[in-house]
Amino acid sequence: MWKKYKPYIVQSVIALAVGALSFILVRRGFNEFNSISKPFLTPPPAVYPAVWTLLFILMGVSAGITSKIQGRIPFVYWLQLFVNFLWPIIFFGMKAYLFAFVWLVLLWILIISMIMEFKRIDKRAAYLQIPYLIWVTFAGYLNFSVWLMNM
Question: 1 pLDDT exceeds 90?
Answer without folding.
Answer: no
